[in-house]
Amino acid sequence: MTDPSPRSAPPAPLHVLGALALELRGDAPVARNALDQAGAGRLAELIARDLAGFAAEAARLELTTVGALYDPVEVLRPGWPLHHELDQLAARAPGRHEGGGRIIAFGAHQERLPGTLPPSPDYAGGPLRLLPFVLGGEPEVAARVGEIFETTLLERGMAGAETALAAQEAFGLQVEHARYLTVHDLAAMMALQYEHAGLAPLWPLLETALLQPEAEQWLDAPPEPLVRYAEGEARVALFSPAAWHARYAPEAPCDSDDCRDKLNRRYQHFEARLRQIAAVLGAHGVPVTFVHCDDGTQVRDQL
Q: What span, in angstroms and rounded, lies between the C-alpha atoms of 127 and 299?
């Protein structure tokens, strides 16, 4: 008779989530975004060899990857759906066993990848392309490998020369740098990129959605739009001109055409910024709900 208590159940498998990041040279086009099964398998074997070089125990884990390239916004999404899809597809692959050490690579069949793996054409052509991978298996082993990766890949995770060349030839692109990153490394890199792009105020909200999706976070820093992240969605305040004036320009009413023109330009700039922020959130897979707010002084209560 088996003990049905949780203590008798095997520990849940742990997963190490990461990606091979390819920084492209110049503006040369990518010949293909997905490889066939044979090409995906060859590249996966090289990736497995590289990862074992960073942590020998990685060879005891099951590596699952896909022969396709993605934009960072397709990888950095709440719940890590791309990595989750890889793991779910691998769970249904024939011959899976508990011993680990297996390599599973998904490639295109008749130019079509399985499940939800096809990269979106909306984000093709960026300078940084990612080939995601999942390592899974014994929890203790995965935990040790994950800890090593988190502390070493960002600084010393350069891909092997053979791997970089193979990726360059397989996808038909020009690679400047090829390195391995965990999803946390990738998030840190994106935080810096968003800071350079003038989107630093948005990052704490995005980071919460990625790493603490059940938590709450506000973007409440005038002149920025007002956004509340909670319960898995971003609620963005839409202001009427009068409500915007009350919150963002509460100074004395304008009595000249020049002043009114300046206020109107500020309001138009605000609306453009709002659209930009909503687009970034949407690209990262964060649902966006617009909330009409007619009171610019009590707007937090309306979100």
A: 39
E strand residue ranges, 191-259? 217-219, 227-230, 233-239
Q: Which residue has the higher pLDDT, 258 or 59?
A: 59
- Quote the pLDDT of residue 2: 28
Calculate ∠ Cα 266-267-272, nearest 5°. 95
Phi and psi dihedrals of 124, rounded to 5?
Answer: -75, 150
13 and 145 share a domain?
yes
Separation between Cα atoms, residue 232 and residue 212, nearest integer Å: 10
Report the alpha-carbon distance of residue 147 to residue 138 in Å, rounded.
Answer: 14
Any domain includes 239: yes
Summarised one tens digit per residue, pLDDT across range 167-200 is 999 999 999 999 999 999 999 999 999 999 999 9
Which residue's structure tokens are 């935990």? 143
Q: What is the mean pLDDT of the chain?
A: 89
Q: Are residues 236 and 94 in the same domain?
A: no
Helix/strand/coil for 20: strand
| Residue 185 one-letter amino acid | D
User: Tell me: the pLDDT tens digits for 274-301?
Assistant: 999 999 999 999 999 999 887 656 777 7
Count: domains in the chain? 2
Q: Are residues 45 and 153 in the same domain?
A: yes
Would the pLDDT of 161 be above 70?
yes
Predicted TM-score (pTM) of the model is: 0.89
Q: Burial letters for 84-98: b for 16+ Cβ neighbours within 10 Å, e otherwise?
A: ebbbebbeeeeeeee
Residues in the chain: 303
Same domain, 96 and 28: yes
State whether 46 and 89 are in the same domain: yes
Cα three-residue angle 284-81-85, rounded to 5 degrees: 150
Domain that holds residue 226: 214-302
With respect to residue 204, please indicate whether it lies within any of the assigned structural domains. no
Q: Tokens 């003038």 appear where?
A: 198
